[in-house]
Amino acid sequence: MPSPIAPSAPLFPRRIGRALAVAVALFAVAPFASARAQEVTTVFAAASLTNAFQDIGKLYREKTGKEVAFSFAASSALAKQLEAGAPAAIFASADTKWMDYTEGKDLTLKATRVTPIGNSLVLIMPADQAKPVTIDARFDWLTFLGADGRIATGLTDSVPAGIYAKAALTSLGQWDTVKARIVGAESVRAALALVERGEARAGIVYSTDAAIAKNVKVVATFPANSHPPVEYPFEIVKGQDTPATRAFFDFLVGTEARAVYARYGFVVK
């Protein structure tokens, strides 16, 4: 009589064991992944701060090992994104209007407000067409622009550069003359690009934007008293005043960051 065959070990418990092992491994990794994600400080910043903030973020990473993520756009667009619930830890605006707006909506912390830098407003042209001019109440804009020339700047009802441009032209008594020639862009960097590509006869941007462009030249600086001061307030977003946020916020106004601002032509206060 043949001897009985011993039954093989059931597979089901073995599969359960493997599944449990995978689950334990995932559980062990998840907190570390979550912690890494939480280490990234997200900053909403005006488009004109792009180059300076990217350099400052790199310096901070080299010194601390901490990551910083940036979202650059017009201050108006960023303020609206904050209002819609977009996640950010710090907001750096190119004017006081939109910072006041986020404060009024209880989105940012007024107690953290600092205004470490400023800028100037300039008129630019494509480099191969640029000729210095003097902007005052007597400047002949229509002759300067020619038959169909356009001026690129930010949207004059929302983008800070455009708001400053409209204020300056209005103060000089020239707004009604040139408003039909204005091309409003979604950000000051977008306006700069229109001039760089030769799609606009001239542009009204910040001096720091003109400084980083290769194909444009500044032909005039608007009188400082023709528009409100170009200022950059920074604030921490409500609910984000954590040690990590505070550490980078302090770095943004520290000695090393101020050296970067100066290198890009900002007025350091």
UniProtKB/TrEMBL annotation:
Its domain of life? Bacteria
Q: Where is the signal peptide?
A: 1-37
Question: Entry's CDD domains?
Answer: PBP2_EcModA
Q: Which Pfam families match?
A: SBP_bac_11
Keyword Metal-binding (UniProt): yes
> Which terms are listed as keywords in the entry?
Metal-binding, Signal
Q: Does the keyword DNA-binding apply?
A: no
Membrane-traversing stretches: none
UniProt xrefs under PANTHER family:
MOLYBDATE-BINDING PERIPLASMIC PROTEIN, MOLYBDATE-BINDING PROTEIN MODA
Q: Member of which family?
A: Belongs to the bacterial solute-binding protein ModA family.
The name under which this protein is listed is Molybdate ABC transporter substrate-binding protein
Q: What organism is listed for this UniProt entry?
A: Ancylobacter radicis
